[in-house]
C-alpha cells in the first residue's frame, strides 16, 4: 500500500518561498510510468493541480503557476518536493501530494498539510 506524507512549515511570510516535501512509502518514485503531483485547495475553492514529476524525473507545471513553481525529487530518500516562490495570501491552501500511474492499482493521496501565507 502506497502511503504519502507531506511535511513543511505551516506558516510562510508573503514574498518568501513555500517549501514542502512528500515522503513516499510502500512504493518507489522511480516506478515506471508513475506520476507524483502536488495539488492544493484554497479555502472555499476547489482542487488545483500544480504540477507533476514523473518516474523519469521529467516535470510539468500548471501554466498559471509555472513561473513560480519547481518540483524536484530525492530518489535516495524516496521523496519529492515542491517550491513555490513569491507567495501571497492567495497561496494559502491545504497542499496535497498525490500519486498515480504505474505505482499501483489506484491513485493515492497524502493527508494534506495546511499552509498559511501571512505576515
How would you describe what is shown here?
- By secondary structure, the chain is mostly beta strands.
- Helix content is 0%, strand content 51%.
- The strands form 2 sheets. Strands 2, 4, 5, 6, 9, 10 and 11 form a 7-stranded mixed beta sheet that branches.
- The model has no long low-confidence stretch (mean pLDDT 97).
Please summarize what this structure is.
The protein is mostly beta strands and 119 residues long.
Map the helices and strands.
Blueprint: E1 3-7, E2 11-12, E3 18-25, E4 34-41, E5 48-54, E6 59-61, E7 69-74, E8 79-84, E9 93-101, E10 108-109, E11 113-117
Parallel strand pairs: 2-11
Antiparallel strand pairs: 1-3, 3-8, 4-5, 4-9, 5-6, 7-8, 9-10, 9-11
Number of beta strands: 11
Element-level helix/strand string: EEEEEEEEEEE
Query: Which range best describes the helical content: under 10%, 10-25%, 25-40%, 40-55%, 55-70% or over 70%?
Result: under 10%
- Parts with pLDDT < 50 across at least 5 consecutive residues: none
Overall residue-averaged pLDDT value: 97
The SS-based structural class is: mainly beta
Major sheet size, sense and barrel closure: 7 strands, mixed
Q: How far apart are the first and last residues' alpha carbons, in Å?
A: 39 Å
Question: Strand fraction band?
Answer: over 45%
| Count of alpha and pi helical runs | 0
CA-atom Rg in angstroms? 14 Å
Overall body shape? globular
